[in-house]
Design goal:
This protein is 39% helix and 17% strand. Helix 9 packs across helix 11. The strands form five sheets. It has an eight-stranded mixed β-sheet, with helices on both faces. It is of the alpha/beta class.
């Protein structure tokens, strides 16, 4: 009797284990077509293509392992459980995020600052930017490079005293690049320095996302337009506070830092939109295909999360907005996601605005595109952390669609 009971219990355990494995397999297969991890704000690993070469060098098995891990059953639930446990234990950094003084900041470790290496990178970057400036100058266009402080530099004082904010490293990047560009006669706008002179307004930078707020984007727009006007001596259409209205979305704002915390830490910060008081009709194209004439991709309901992707619909390789006001100049702005919120305002001052993100698929180099379209102004927007990075939008010689 006891032997039968033991065998039945063993059989039950085995069946439960097999059922768990089968359920996990079903869920994993069901997630095959998912492309993104929402809370992690990244793309999931794709199913690798089997080839004899990939099998031989081990890359196929390695990529297959990444695919399975990314789509494992209950992955999100387990990540939330771990995040909740770390928060309950009061760990100083949870999912590489530091919660301090109302800010959600990245944990940065303790990087070494190598001035000689940074200086060499600044010289190389400046040489690359000269080529872009010269491409615009060939037909009389103007070029300006814009440096924007990133969140953890702006919120450096919120870090615990025993943590590094990279404040020194990032300001060294600005110092070296600005000096190198000045030697080469390339116009440079340090938004951080301008904002410091204004007393570091609290609403400039998001506390839960690594970008600036819409207020910060509007201030950046104003500083940029003043800079462009001073470069040419021309009178540009520059909107003031009296020309716009801000709207606050009721949705919970899930900024990029809050996402890393799986949305488990609340914040009072809300996402803002900016509307011109005088409507400007326009047409819009994304990657060559006509899109709806809008600059905000709104949540479907007030219950959904609002993310930074509301601005311009997120990162897009090539967006064109045409306002059909031929008496106004044209502008080409390129950079990464820091341009998105700025684009929602910038088009209001120009006949045509092109926005490029060189991190994505491409067909033409930036300098060739400049020569072909001949915008009156070419502007690069980069945050302090990316100033000396030649990859992505740095060198400007990557291809664009």
């Amino acid at each position: 009797m006891n032997g039968k009971t033991i065998r039945l219990s063993e059989l039950l355990v085995s069946l439960c284990f097999l059922a768990f494995l089968f359920s996990a397999m079903v869920v994993t297969v069901a997630k095959y077509r998912e492309a993104d991890a929402f809370y992690e704000n990244r793309s999931l690993a794709a199913m690798p293509e089997y080839t004899a070469e990939a099998d031989g060098n081990g890359s196929y098995v390695k990529d297959l392992d990444k695919f399975i891990v990314d789509r494992a059953a209950l992955r999100t639930a387990l990540l939330k459980w771990k995040t909740g446990l770390d928060l309950a234990l009061g760990r100083p950094a949870v999912n590489d995020t530091v919660i301090s003084g109302g800010w959600f900041l990245p944990y940065l470790g303790y990087p070494q600052v190598d001035r000689e290496e940074a200086a060499a990178s600044a010289e190389l970057m400046a040489d690359n930017l000269v080529r872009i400036r010269d491409a615009a100058a060939e037909y009389g266009g103007q070029y300006c490079y814009v440096a924007v402080p990133n969140q953890y530099v702006y919120g450096a004082e919120a870090y615990p005293s025993y943590m590094d904010s990279r404040f020194q490293k990032q300001h060294l990047n600005v110092e070296l690049l600005s000096a190198a560009l000045a030697e080469r006669g390339v116009d440079f706008l340090d938004v951080g320095a301008e904002v410091e002179a204004l007393g570091r307004p609290e609403g400039f930078m998001s506390k839960v996302d690594h970008h600036y707020t819409m207020e910060g984007a509007f201030l950046t727009y104003r500083l940029l337009m003043d800079k462009l006007a001073s470069m040419t001596g021309e009178e540009l259409l520059i909107l003031g506070e009296e020309d716009v209205a801000f709207e606050t979305l009721p949705n919970t704002y899930l900024g990029s830092r809050a996402r890393k915390l799986m949305g488990m830490v609340s914040s009072e910060e809300k996402l803002q939109l900016l509307w011109p008081k005088e409507e400007v009709p326009f047409a819009r194209w994304d990657n060559g295909a006509e899109d709806l004439p809008r600059v905000y991709s709104m949540p479907d309901s007030a219950e959904e999360y609002a993310t930074y992707g509301v601005y311009m619909g997120g990162d897009i390789a090539h967006t064109t907005i045409d306002t059909n006001r031929q008496e106004l100049p044209s502008i080409l702005v390129y950079g990464d996601s820091f341009t998105n919120a700025l684009e929602c305002i910038l088009y209001l001052s120009f006949d045509r605005m092109d926005a490029l993100d060189l991190r994505y698929h491409a067909e033409m180099s930036l300098t060739d595109y400049i020569r072909e379209t001949q915008p009156d102004y070419v502007v690069c927007v980069r945050d302090y952390d990316a100033l000396l990075l030649l990859s992505g939008n740095g060198a400007g010689e990557e291809l664009i669609p």
